[in-house]
Specification:
The complex is a heterodimer of chains A (196) and B (486). Chain A is an alpha+beta fold and 196 residues long. Helices cover 13% and strands 29% of the residues of chain A. In chain B, 62% of the residues lie in helices and 1% in strands. Classes of the chains: A alpha+beta (196), B mainly alpha (486).
């Protein structure tokens, strides 16, 4: 049992030999030595045509698969609410409709945000997504802090990072005032690669 | 009846011609010592995969893969369709047990040296099966399109966004657009139901074919080294001299264990029911603390406990190194000793990974790093921590509660555990140090300087100074002449 002597004659794990036995009773002809030079002509035509068809079909397929990349940076101005909804000196949780949404988005077409109004025409609009890993942060007006429930990131009332794992402050949307209404530029999930 | 059946069988086989192959496969000789209870985990994983296919197809009869309706269709499955809840539970528990069984199987073949020559490819495809199965687990969590799934997608996108240069493209490809919406669920559905299962079927077939063709790994004997020149002949000799037919000798244990595993899934499903769904996937409902499913909890824990500056490199580099190490293993260590009794390093690796996995999962179940978001309003201070305090100190306790200090700091065992428990803080910090900590904070604590009026700071620190054991006075500066404390 321990001594290795002569290798057994049993064939195992050998490279498949040219003359392997036909299987399952089906008639298998060995590939003939091609004497006539154009005997495999149609085979070559077939390979060429298939390659052409594959190449042509792959253009739309690749374009279709990569189509989400076309609107990676897509953002649009959207109304958040009347200025009267946001008292000066307070931070309010509110929502806006994702500027590009489809009928089957359901509740995911809404986007939450925090609106902080510091003066009559001064605003900060924060994304709720923590800059660490995107969990929704909560606002505590008593201590003036945003706290993240996932890994304990904390931000100050002006969005600066206070403590914990976030690498930066809260993401801020661009905002503008149009006819006594607050509008923000939204539409993309705020992440480190695509800040709002 | 039997006669008639065998006639039908013969008619079919005359045309299909697979009976011979099946009989041959069933009867193929395997080493006697592989007819062991240690060799049942792979087949059990396969049985669970088959059950996942069956229950998944049944769920797809009702499930609606639309962001607007998926959550509602899960409610219908749970509450209106007969046994819908049970099929969801079978699918959920089956997935957990499948990942568990796969990991056990992997640990076993690693410790038994099964990945060595000539079974390298079997191992490599097995690594692929691990990744595909984890892919099923993650995409399956998204199918349960609830609040956890919604914010879980946000976490996935935030991780993808950390890849340098192409992060924004990865986010776009992951979500199917710039934001989590209808197209996101559609593409995860495609992956969960078509792409990954298709790849799984192909990879499993090749994996099993290799097990049959190359032969089941013999029980490793310490000192019997794998040598590329002699191994095949020796294995053949062992199979011939001391082999048993796969069916029934080896198969019967697989059969019994497979049935037991299915019974375990049925028992879990009946006793514990389906997983969720939790609240609806409405981003406006932000009072949630999303948590991943059990097999990703270790990652959730690791991401909380790592130093922040190590996070991105570890997220991006460690998975690549881990997968590369798994794939290269049979080529680096393809010969030599198989028995775990002579491979202490291999045993250590398994012990290290298993204990790390279990410890991090355990920590993830009770996340001490998360603030307790409602402690400030929902967890009152124990009366004994208020007794005998002056009005100023009681006022300080109120500040402690009202300013959400309690969300991170426990007192009397209740409250958050993000920061240290403060029952004895007066022993550790002097009055000046307490003031400094409150006003300036630290990397792990926000600075309250801008948000606490001096009077509140004075009250808060006065209260904190009372937090010390009766037998141990509060700390004070040695140069100070005025003793602090109550």
């Amino acid at each position: 049992m321990t001594q290795e002597k002569s290798p057994t004659p049993l064939p195992v794990l050998q490279e498949p030999s040219a003359g392997s036995a036909p299987c399952l009773g089906a008639l298998v002809l060995p590939p003939a030595e091609s004497q006539v030079p154009r005997r495999n002509f149609l085979l070559r035509v077939g390979i060429g045509l298939s390659a052409l068809a594959g190449a042509l079909a792959s253009v739309p397929v690749v374009g279709y698969l990569l189509s989400p990349l076309r609107n990676v940076g897509q953002r649009d101005w959207v109304r958040v609410g009347a200025l009267g909804e946001f008292p000066i000196g307070e931070t309010r949780l509110t929502t806006f409709a994702n500027p590009s949404h489809e009928a089957w988005d359901g509740p995911t077409s809404m986007v939450p945000c925090y609106v902080r109004r510091t003066a009559r025409d001064r605003f900060q609009v924060f994304a709720v997504n923590c800059a660490h890993l995107g969990c929704p942060v909560r606002w505590f007006p008593e201590s003036g802090l945003f706290m993240c429930p996932c890994h304990g990131g904390v931000y100050y009332d002006d969005g600066r990072r206070a403590s914990g794992p976030p690498p930066r402050g809260l993401f801020e949307y661009l905002w503008q005032i149009r006819r006594d209404e607050l509008w923000v530029r939204g539409g993309a999930l705020p992440t480190l690669a695509t800040p709002a | 009846m039997l006669d008639w059946l065998s006639k039908v069988g013969a008619w079919l086989d005359a045309r299909l011609q697979v009976g011979g192959t099946i009989r041959e496969t069933m009867a193929h000789a395997v080493p006697r010592n592989t007819a062991s209870w240690w060799y049942v985990f792979g087949s059990a994983t396969f049985v669970l995969l088959m059950m996942q296919f069956a229950t998944g197809i049944l769920l797809a009869l009702v499930y609606v893969p639309s962001a607007a309706d998926a959550w509602q269709s899960l409610q219908v499955l749970n509450h209106q369709i007969a046994f819908g809840w049970f099929l969801r539970a079978l699918h959920g528990w089956g997935s957990n047990l499948m990942v568990a069984m796969l990991l056990i199987h992997m640990g076993q073949v690693f410790l038994f040296g099964s990945f060595k020559y000539p079974r390298e490819l079997t191992w490599v495809i097995g690594v692929g099966l691990l990744l595909l199965t984890l892919g099923m687990a993650f995409t399956g969590q998204i199918m349960r399109f609830d609040a956890d799934a919604y914010w879980g997608l946000g976490i996935g996108a935030s991780i993808a966004a950390r890849v340098p240069f192409v992060g924004s493209w990865l986010v776009g490809l992951l979500l199917g657009g710039p934001i989590i919406a209808g197209q996101t669920l559609s593409r995860f559905f495609t992956f969960h139901v078509f792409v990954v299962p298709g790849l799984l079927i192909g990879a499993v077939l090749v994996h099993v074919l290799l097990v049959v063709k190359v032969g089941i790994n013999e029980w490793p004997m310490p000192g019997r080294l794998v040598n590329r020149k002699t191994y095949l002949a020796r294995y053949q000799r062992q199979v011939h001299e001391d082999g048993v037919p796969f069916v029934p000798d080896a198969f019967q244990r697989d059969f019994v264990f497979g049935a037991l595993v299915i019974l375990a899934v049925i028992a879990c499903a009946a006793m514990f029911g389906p997983f969720g769904p939790s609240g609806p996937p409405d981003p406006r409902l932000i009072n949630i603390a999303p948590k991943p499913d059990v097999f990703f909890l270790w990652m959730y824990a690791a991401l909380a406990l790592l130093p922040a500056e190590l996070e991105t490199p570890l997220i991006l580099i460690v998975p690549g190194i881990a997968i590369a190490a798994l794939l290269l293993l049979p080529f680096i260590s393809g010969t030599g000793e198989k028995s775990w009794k002579r491979r202490p390093f291999a045993v250590l690796v398994v012990v290290f990974l298993a204990s790390g996995f279990i410890a991090l999962t355990w920590l993830g179940l009770q996340p001490a790093w998360s603030p307790s978001m409602s402690a400030w309003s929902g967890t009152p201070l124990p009366p004994r921590l208020l007794q005998g305090r002056t009005p100023l100190e009681v006022q300080g306790a109120l500040v402690f509660q009202n300013k959400q200090c309690r969300n991170c700091h426990a007192l009397g065992g209740t409250g958050g555990h993000r920061g240290p428990q403060l029952d004895n803080v007066a022993v550790q910090l002097t009055k000046d140090q307490l003031i400094r900590q409150v006003l300036q904070g630290s990397g792990e604590m926000p600075a309250y300087g801008d948000h606490l009026p001096p009077a509140e700071v004075a009250a808060l620190v006065a209260y904190l100074e009372t937090l010390h054991p009766r037998y141990q006075p509060a700390a004070r500066v040695s140069a100070s002449s005025s003793p602090s404390g109550p």
